């Protein structure tokens, strides 16, 4: 599944940029109850500011009101794209990729190819974002 079809299925909670075809992107899977996911929020906000040419979005499978409650407590979530998945697309994509744990990020190149996946705080994650932003 290409990133454009993935992102089009999600409902925005915070929208700071638009995804455009040909744009590198990062999909970060999270949940509000997940302490490591909450710990990654300041880092994701920083990466979004640092690499504006890369579309960065965090997506949760929870209800929008649950994500809104966390956003009210963590204003950094207003600095990058945050969405909820009401369609089951995120879970199906994670399962297809053999991923069960969160937080987990998928990075797609300009052609929509999955080029990296792993923990959003891994050094390789930022290295890929840096390379793709050139």
TrEMBL record:
<protein>
    <submittedName>
        <fullName>Putative</fullName>
    </submittedName>
</protein>
<dbReference type="Pfam" id="PF00578">
    <property type="entry name" value="AhpC-TSA"/>
</dbReference>
<dbReference type="InterPro" id="IPR000866">
    <property type="entry name" value="AhpC/TSA"/>
</dbReference>
<feature type="domain" description="Thioredoxin">
    <location>
        <begin position="1"/>
        <end position="134"/>
    </location>
</feature>
<dbReference type="InterPro" id="IPR050553">
    <property type="entry name" value="Thioredoxin_ResA/DsbE_sf"/>
</dbReference>
<dbReference type="GO" id="GO:0016209">
    <property type="term" value="F:antioxidant activity"/>
</dbReference>
<dbReference type="InterPro" id="IPR036249">
    <property type="entry name" value="Thioredoxin-like_sf"/>
</dbReference>
<dbReference type="InterPro" id="IPR013766">
    <property type="entry name" value="Thioredoxin_domain"/>
</dbReference>
<dbReference type="GO" id="GO:0016491">
    <property type="term" value="F:oxidoreductase activity"/>
</dbReference>
